[in-house]
Specification:
mainly alpha
Amino acid sequence: MNTLSARLLALAILASTVVFSGCDDSGNQPTPGSPNPPTGAISYSGFVGPTFIVYGCTGCHTASGGSNGLNLTTYQGLMAGGVSGTAVIPGNGAGSLLIRKLLGTAGSQMPLGGTPLPSSKIDSISSWIDQGALNN
C-alpha cells in the first residue's frame, strides 16, 4: 500500500469513527474530523492514531523515513521511535519524548510550524501512554 492509499484509508477510518461516535458524555456533538478526548481506557486506533492524522503529524512523520526517522502513521512506527530515541515510554506519559515534544518542553514544540494540539488531546495521549501505550 502506498503512502497516499494509507492516508486515504486512515481518513476513511477517521471519518467513520466521527460519524458513529455520537455524543460524548457531556452531550456535546464531536467536532467533525477531530476525535474527542476519551474518558476511561484510551484506544490507539480510536483516538491516538486519528489525532496524529487530524493534526498533520503524519504529514511529516511518514512511513518513508519521516522527519527525524519517526513514523507516526502506524503504532509500530511510533513505538520504534526515531533518531532522537524512544518516543514513548509505556507507563510514563510525562517522561515520554512524544509528550515533551507536543508540550514544547523538549526542543521545538510539535507540530513544527503548526498549531499546537489542544491540551486536552495531549493529556489524553499522555493518559494512553500511562495506561501502557497499548496497540488497541
